[in-house]
Specification:
132 residues, mainly alpha, 3 helices, rod-shaped
Length: 132
C-alpha cells in the first residue's frame, strides 16, 4: 500500500513538473511574440518618421525596437540554454510561430534601419524636402 502511495505521489509531482515546464514554454513563446511585435511596430514607426524627414526621431524608434529585440533575444537564449541542459522544449505550433515572429521582426528592423539611412541621405542631398 505504501508503494502505491509513493507511486501516486511521484506521478503527481511529474505531472506538476510537466505543467510547470509547459507554462514556462508558453510564457517564453508569448514573450517572443510580444517583444517581436513591439519591435516590428517601432521599426515601422521609424520608417514613417524618416519618410517625413524626422530622422532623429526615427533613430530613437529604432533604438526602442532594438531594446524589444534584446528582450526577445534574452527569452530565446533562455529557451536554448534549457534545451542545451537537457530540459527539452515540447515544440508546439505556438513555439514555431513565436520563432517565426521574432525572425520577421529582426529582418524588418534591419530593413527599417536601411530605409532610415536612405531617407537621411535623400533629405541631406536635397532630393527630398520636409513639408512646412
Amino acid at each position: 500500500m505504501a508503494e502505491l502511495k509513493d507511486t501516486a505521489e511521484t506521478l503527481k509531482q511529474a505531472a506538476e513538473n510537466q505543467q510547470s515546464r509547459e507554462e514556462a514554454t508558453l510564457m517564453a513563446a508569448m514573450g517572443l511574440i510580444a517583444n517581436g511585435g513591439n519591435a516590428k511596430s517601432l521599426a515601422f514607426e521609424a520608417i514613417r518618421l524618416a519618410k517625413v524627414g524626422k530622422i532623429k526621431e526615427a533613430r530613437e524608434k529604432l533604438e526602442e525596437a532594438d531594446k524589444s529585440l534584446l528582450d526577445a533575444h534574452n527569452s530565446q537564449t533562455d529557451m536554448l540554454t534549457k534545451e542545451a541542459q537537457g530540459q527539452h522544449t515540447h515544440v508546439t505550433l505556438l513555439v514555431v510561430h513565436s520563432q517565426d515572429h521574432l525572425m520577421n521582426a529582426i529582418t524588418f528592423r534591419d530593413l527599417a534601419g536601411e530605409m532610415v539611412d536612405l531617407y537621411e541621405k535623400l533629405y541631406a542631398s536635397g532630393s527630398l524636402k520636409t513639408e512646412v
